[in-house]
Amino acid sequence: MNHHRHDVLPYLDALREHLVRHDVPSPVSVECTNWREPIAVHLYEITLSDLASALLLWTKSLDGVTVTAKRMRHDQSVHLTVVGRVASGVPLHVWGGVRFERPLFPDLPTGVEQDVELSTLHRWKHPGQGVAA
Q1: 52 located within any domain
Q2: Spatial separation of the C-alpha atoms in residues 27 and 96, rounded to whole Å
Q3: Is there a contact between 37 and 93 (Cβ–Cβ < 8 Å)?
């Protein structure tokens, strides 16, 4: 039996190397699989401002970055996710959740994932300087 066929160590090594090289917020948990989306990093930030700040730091350390927001079906939260690649090319998802507030997410239906512009993350980082559309 080949025990290395489904090895996650290369993905964990890529994440470790990334964390050592970049000053990014530490994850509260990491999920690692050997298929589709190998690494998911969960950040624990309470406020939208703090989560936006943390995600922006991660965007600066990844290549090919996209950002999405998804209002979850069974609770009143919104998951914000940054997807990008570390230097070795491994895809990485960095996410966190915040409480759903209609003024901040006016056009975000339940269960739908929408793209978020980096400029919106910057606005959320500095609350009171304009509400995101």
Answers
A1: yes
A2: 10
A3: yes
Q: 114: which DSSP letter?
A: E
CB contact at 8 A, 35 and 11: no
Domain that holds residue 77: 40-133
Return d(Cα 31, Cα 22) in angstroms, integer: 19
Q: How far apart are CA 93 and CA 44, in angstroms?
A: 14
pLDDT in tens, 25-84: 999 999 998 777 789 999 998 899 999 999 999 999 999 999 999 999 887 899 999 999
Residue 23 lies in a domain: no
Q: How far is CA 58 from the centre of its chain?
A: 8
pTM (global) more than 0.85: yes
In sequence order, which residues have a C-beta less than 8 Å from that of residue 22 and are 6 or more positions away?
A: 60, 61
Domains: count for the chain: 1
For the range 2-9, what are the long-range contacts, defined as Cβ-Cβ under 8 Å and sequence gap of 24 or more?
6/34, 7/34, 8/32, 8/33, 8/34, 8/38
For residue 29, being part of any structural domain is answered with no
> Do the domain assignments include residue 32?
no
